[in-house]
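Quick bug: HXXEE domain-containing protein output formatted oddly.
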Amino acid sequence: MNFLRKYWQDIGLFIGIVICMYLLMNWETIPRINSILWLSFVAILLHQFEEYRWPGYFPGIFNIALFKSESPNNYPLNKQSAMIINVVIAYVFYLLPVFFPSVVWLGMAPVLMGFFQIIFHGVVINIRAKRMYNPGLVSAIIVHLPVGIWYINYLYEHHLITLSDWIWSAIYFAIAVYILIVKGNTWMKNKNSIHKFSQKQLWSFHK
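Here's what came back:
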């Protein structure tokens, strides 16, 4: 568990690179919708790497700028809760649509999550932190956004999406955000948590 707590975001980057290599070598044989969904999964892995490894100071932004925490190294977000929340988001919420590409609303929900990341990182956090950049913003703009637009465009070009898909995807997205992000942080916050972020993950922002 200690290994995962320390390296989960690096493992994600490695998996993302392997997937990109696989897609590149088999681009002509993989159904296009499957390729797009794989790239959506890669997008969240890159996003998490940017947030927690390089430049990696999202925990500082989250705990200090958003919550004015007096214990920013472990409250309200700590290393344990960050790992659990992000692993579930990536390997359940984002990966599940890859295996069920015909369930359109299942694939649309992560796309909505990607668009939400642009607003969250580009507007909400930057206003609170009084900055033009925070970890997660670049991947949201240059990966989440184009992949999401590509996916929606593909669905419309092939007449695969309906109004009910939009409704169900919005409901699923809202439930996922509430359970995984809002309640996830509430359930696992602990001022006495021993799972503390590194100084780099905090003070690169604080400085």
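Actually, after a second look the formatting is fine. DSSP finds nine helices and no strands in the chain. Closing.
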